[in-house]
Design goal:
Layout (H helix, E strand, L loop, with lengths): L1 E6 L5 H10 L2 E3 L8 E9 L3 E8 L6 E8 H6 L3 H13 L8 E6 L3 E7 L4 E2 H8 L4 H20 L2 E2 L8 E3 L5 E3 L6 E2 L18 H4 L7 H16 L9 H10 L12 H10 L16 H4 L9 H5 L42
Parallel strand pairs: 1-3
Antiparallel strand pairs: 1-2, 3-4, 4-5, 5-7, 6-7, 8-10, 9-12, 10-11
Bound molecules: adenosine-5'-diphosphate and magnesium ion (MG).
Length: 346
Amino acid sequence: MKIEITVAAAVVVVVVVVVAASAVVVVVAAAAAVVVVVVVVVVVVVVIITTTVQLSKDKSRTFALKCLKKKHIVETRQQEHIYSEKRIMMEADSPFITKLHKTFRDRKYVYMLMEVCLGGELWTILRDRGNFDDITARFCVACVLEAFSYLHAKGIIYRDLKPENLLLDARGYVKLVDFGFAKKIGMGKKTWTFCGTPEYVAPEIILNKGHDHSADYWSLGILMYELLHGTPPFSGSDPMRTYNVILKGIDHIEFPKKISRPAHLLIKKLCRDNPMERLGYGKNGISDIRKNKWFQGFDWEGLMNLTLTPPIIPKVKTATDTSNFDTYPRDMDIAADELSGWDVDF
Ligand SMILES: Nc1ncnc2c1ncn2[C@@H]1O[C@H](COP(=O)(O)OP(=O)(O)O)[C@@H](O)[C@H]1O
Ligand SMILES: [Mg+2]
């Protein structure tokens, strides 16, 4: 069956151009007869265009469509990562992980049709607010912790934690997106690929010692610091300088007063140089983190049941309201055809 992506009448010119450039006519074997209508461009990166799309028969149902240029994937040898991203997201079924419904491909792009999170990136909210108080940060970190708990139990490590990859859904719950670096390594196994975002990379990754799910606990400590302070603890003018400060360790970092004592102590327990000493890595696993003093009084059950009221309730007016996202200059390049066939199973 063919799903044609057509441009809605109300759409701004930018979108028309992007859609024309990506020449999106997607062939799928979906059961439901749907016409998907491209509504608004959320993000345009060199490689990726994420747009929201809408079911023509039920306009209240919208999705995010991640479009990746195949030529770029091949040039940067990301084929395996893209397949892994698809497999892991398709398999994942957690309220703290963005759902991937379906994937498509054509001559120029591969596409991922996902649940849309209209509350925007945590990164944008943090930039606008400067920093979060303990209550807000605790809720965000708790959502990530539940996502990690789910993934780690399946032998999957995430490896790309940062505020850009955390989205708020319309209710204000935090969800992980972007599984481009996630990997199923299995229990008790290690992996060696160098990946991640410099400020969030664990020392054992820099030193190429092999890493496992403990690298995610490290990044959780970095995220806590960034949410409470506004910027991450380790940073330099270029990645090499950042890696140098990471290797000096968390004890060389000055904690500002606005980071409370319990938060400070938890960050230090997560950001131990030795991966085996990090909180969460012991025999009780993640529950050691849940029981930490910083989380005292936190309603874990309410979080799991999704009955807890989130600290940030985003303003989302309609199912196509993308106003919580920044707009980026559009990608004017017409993607080249890529016909080598690596994506035959995508
Ligand atoms: N399901 C989604 N709902 C809304 N926006 C999304 C969704 N997935 C991705 N985005 C937006 O697109 C951006 C880039 O997507 P991401 O999967 O992180 O790709 P990249 O590998 O380029 O970082 C995200 O940071 C977010 O702003
Ligand atoms: Mg991302």
